[in-house]
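pls ignore typos typing on phone
fe (iii) ion + seq
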Amino acid sequence: MSRLLIKNIKSLVQVREPSVLKVSGSEMKELPCLENAWLAVDNGLIADFGKMEDFPGIEDWKGLQIIDAEGKLLLPCYADSHTHIVYAGNREGEFVDRINGLSYEAIFARGGGILNSAMKLSESSEDELFEQSIVRLYEVIGQGTGSIEIKSGYGLSVESELKMLRVIKRIKELNLIPVKATFLGAHALPAAFKNNKRGYIDLIINEMLPRIASEKLADYIDVFCEQNYFTYDETKEILEAGKVHGLIPKVHAEQLSHFGGIKAGVECGAISVDHLEFCNDDDVTLLKNSDTMPTILPGAAFFLSLPLPPARKMIDAGLPIAFASDYNPGSSPSGNMNFMMSLGCVQYKLTPEEVINACTLNSAYAMQLSAEVGSITVGKRANFFITKPISSYGFIPYSFGSNLIESVFLNGVKQ
Ligand code: NIG
Ligand code: FE
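k done
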């Protein structure tokens, strides 16, 4: 693998020691940078970096590729710890229905929403699904994403859930970026089990989970804990069943109402609880006494016009916060983490430092990848991007809707 030196970097952003795996509370306000810096890559990893004035020379670097980044910033790629990029078709029609006054809940009640995506997915072959999904993968890589979590949950039958997870496995095996797979069979009650919720939960626990575990198709187990979806007790039962098969819990929690998802997640040792629009003070206390990463999905709250999760309050209480895109056809048809940062600054009143920490190191923690990606650290994977010439990192969330990324490097290779 080639050796690469990037020199004259205007600002090398998010420089961390290997021991820092997440940042919490007031630590999120700090974003360590090196001005006028160089960065060296060897064998796909960050080999070293420093200030130009201390540059040690390059005598022993044979076959070295050199890039001049004058006037440009270098940031670690975004870690997107919550996506549903494996899906078939789109839900543009429901978007228009919502504009015309129908609620997300009403669309689900008439058999649309997640069930609409499940119908479309059941009619697509594994190859078709893979082709559609990798288009989205390349799209988000171009927008700066360098590690990703992908969920199932539009299958809702043994065969279709396995089909989704096999597509995620194929994406993982491309070895482009680190990929974590999440089994979300408990995303909604499928039409075939409309009057038999117990039957569907038994199917998840007794049939889906053992197959998924034996084919090693998932790292995590997730449940949509919400009114008309899965209760607190059901969430815990399903998460515990996943743990028996070695899967680590995550939860879709408190998105449309306060329904106990955070409590269920913390009690089951979840690595993250995500959404959090209806997170209350008791939840903040629960999270304070846990290692669970509270994860906000600003795209979904924006697209569905939901109340905003209390991000400011959570950070001020000393909690860490991660951001992820929730890229999916129903509630967030975008995986653009640059835009998630703009939403974080404008709507949630977080500083550029806080949103960059939320979208890199903390979101990498939310998928147990912060020892491998999420910061500029010697020994971490060389997944980073170079911006166009810009004034400072705050210009990225400031310029909402612009694409300020000039080039993306994965394992030190320019894409
Ligand atoms: O994260 N909240 C539940 N699941 C997804 C949306 C699913 C859909 O509408 O397709 C979410 O928002
Ligand atoms: Fe989601």
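Residues 82, 84, 252, 326, 328 surround fe (iii) ion (ligand 2) (CB under 6 Å). DSSP finds 15 helices and 16 strands in the chain. more later
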